[in-house]
Every structure is written in structure tokens, then in C-alpha cells.
Specification:
Blueprint: H1 2-22, E1 25-29, H2 36-52, E2 56-60, H3 67-74, E3 82-87, H4 88-97, E4 107-122, H5 131-140, E5 146-149, H6 155-166, E6 172-175, H7 179-187, E7 193-197, H8 199-206, E8 211-215, E9 241-249, H9 254-268, H10 271-280, E10 283-288, H11 289-309
Parallel strand pairs: 1-2, 1-3, 5-6, 5-7
Antiparallel strand pairs: 3-9, 4-7, 4-8, 4-9, 4-10
């Protein structure tokens, strides 16, 4: 009898392992095809299929600032075969600005892979040459200067507002439709500051037509080694960055999550994925387990406070 039980246990274990290994995976990317996240997770798919023999499909489900795709993942069967890639917006911002059908209790963050700070840049003739001088000038002259961002309730606006609130600063946000338009606004003299990601502004920094004084991350950015970080200003806890992560529905079995961690980290550390991050100015930043859950909860709650302070909370 004991032998039969042992054989049965081995059979069930083998069956579970095979199911974990060969079930096709769908990664929902809640944005249109062709963007950075879409490309990044398609790289993951190719690596996972090559290394583990698992078919991976990336499904683009856009709308609602990414929230429609995340909601689709949340309502999927919690067997670990339907995942959602996401960024800061639909997880930590949209719940406060747009209203969404899910809460943090409806999903499990599996792994965060990359992060990239936003930057605050000015033209060369702006009367501040360091982050300290910039903040002192802005505090002394409330609402006298403008900063261009990637839209109301966007990460740029909230990243700048969060840093400014730490020093009691209020200035005028000018929302554009994206970082490209915000950059044009700065170069054309329509706004005093650019707040956005690094790639759209990098060539102008290198050419000397723009100076960047502050990154919205706790550490300095690899692409801008001379630009001050939040840690150096004593506000490391106010970091706001663009990140990419994978989520699964609440109720997904722990053993499935452990297996996903294994294959996803292999993909994230692959030469193909690392090359992509280097090209777009992002940093490999692996976070998982309880540390990731706490990080995202803290960010969700803090950005909720910033949204209220900026008058952007959903009605």
C-alpha cells in the first residue's frame, strides 16, 4: 500500500511539473503595440520559448491608461498562464485619478524588472545651475515658473509634484500630450522646465542646449552621472520612477508563482533584454516577493496623497 501511495505521489508531482513547464503563457500588455514595454515583453517571450520550450504570446489590450488590460488579467483564471505586464500608471496612479475596477487585493505582483527615473531639465540660461539652487529659486518664487509634463495625472507631473511638495514648493504644471511635446515646449521657451524620461532629451543634454539638474530617483542615473539624485537632497523616500513588472490574478498557486519567477528572471537577465534596457536608458532592477509587495503598496498610497494634493483625484 505504501508503495502504491508513493508511486501515486510521484505521478502527481510529475504531472504538476509538466503542466507548469509546458502550459502556454499569455502576457497582456495593456497598451498598443510598438512601445517600449511591448517590445520588452516580446523579448521575454522569445527567450522563454527558446530556453524553456514554453509558447508565449503577448496580447495588446489598451485603454483606460492601462487599466483595461490589467482588469482583464485580474478576471482571468488564476492558474498562472495569463499574466499582465504593467508600469507605474495603471497600478499606482490610475486607481486614484481614473477609477478602476480592481484593487491591490485582486492581483499578485510577481516580479519588477526595470526602472527609469524622470528628470527635471532647463535651458542653459536658467538662473540655477544645481538642484539645490533650483529648489531654492522655486521655493522663493511660488508659481512663477512652469514645468512641462506628459499630461495631467501622468508620471511626470506626479514625480515633480511629489519632489516639490517635500520642500513646500508650488509651481505651474503645463500638461502636454507626451515627453516629445514637452521637450519642444522647453526648447521653444514656452516652459521653464522639462519633466520627463531621459531618452527624448538626452541628445540635447549632450549637445549643451539643455541642462538637467535633478533625477526623480533615489540614485543617480547611469545616463546622467552628474545629475543630482533625491538621496542627495535627503528625500530618497520620495522616489518616483517608471518601472515594468509582471502581475498575476489573486489566487494563483505559490508553486506556479515560484516557477514564473524562475523563467521571468532568466528572460530579464538575458543578453537580449539587457541590451534593450541599455538602449532605452533603463536599469535592471529585480524586485520580488514581500519586498515588491511592500514597495508597490507604499508607492500606491503615497501617489494617492500626491494626486489629492495636485487636485487630480477622481470625483
Amino acid at each position: 500500500m505504501r508503495t502504491i501511495q508513493t508511486l501515486l505521489l510521484l505521478f502527481l508531482t510529475l504531472k504538476t511539473s509538466l503542466a507548469l513547464a509546458v502550459d502556454p503563457i499569455t502576457i497582456i500588455w495593456p497598451s498598443p503595440p510598438g512601445g517600449g514595454g511591448d517590445i520588452y515583453f516580446r523579448i521575454f517571450g522569445k527567450v522563454i520559448e527558446k530556453e524553456f520550450g514554453i509558447p508565449v504570446m503577448v496580447s495588446n489590450i489598451s485603454g483606460g491608461g492601462g487599466s483595461i488590460g490589467v482588469a482583464k488579467m485580474v478576471s482571468s483564471k488564476p492558474d498562472g498562464t495569463t499574466l499582465a505586464g504593467a508600469w507605474t500608471g495603471p497600478i499606482s496612479i490610475a486607481p486614484h485619478t481614473l477609477g478602476v475596477s480592481y484593487t491591490p487585493d485582486d492581483y499578485i505582483p510577481v516580479m519588477l524588472f526595470s526602472s527609469a527615473p524622470y528628470v527635471i531639465c532647463t535651458r542653459p540660461d536658467f538662473p540655477a545651475n544645481t538642484a539645490t539652487e533650483l529648489l531654492a529659486l522655486l521655493k522663493k518664487n511660488p508659481n512663477q515658473y512652469s514645468f512641462g509634463t506628459d499630461g495631467p495625472g501622468g508620471l511626470g507631473q506626479l514625480a515633480a509634484t511629489r519632489a516639490f511638495l517635500s520642500f513646500g514648493i508650488t509651481q505651474r504644471d503645463i500638461p502636454y500630450k507626451g515627453a516629445g511635446e514637452s521637450r519642444v515646449g522647453l526648447l521653444g521657451g514656452h516652459v521653464d522646465m522639462y519633466v520627463g524620461s531621459i531618452p527624448p532629451i538626452l541628445q540635447f543634454i549632450q549637445a549643451g542646449s539643455v541642462k538637467c539638474l535633478l533625477v526623480t530617483a533615489a540614485k543617480r542615473a547611469k545616463a546622467l552621472p552628474n545629475t543630482t539624485s533625491l538621496s542627495e537632497l535627503g528625500i530618497a523616500s520620495e522616489e518616483t520612477v517608471l518601472w515594468r513588472a509582471i502581475f498575476v490574478p489573486r489566487g494563483t498557486p505559490p508553486e506556479r508563482i515560484a516557477y514564473l519567477e524562475k523563467i521571468l528572471e532568466t528572460a530579464a537577465r538575458s543578453p537580449e533584454a539587457m541590451k534593450f534596457l541599455d538602449e532605452v536608458g533603463e536599469t535592471l532592477d529585480i524586485v520580488k516577493g514581500p519586498a515588491l509587495i511592500k514597495q508597490l503598496k507604499d508607492e500606491h498610497d503615497k501617489l494617492g496623497e500626491v494626486v489629492k494634493a495636485a487636485g487630480l483625484a477622481k470625483k
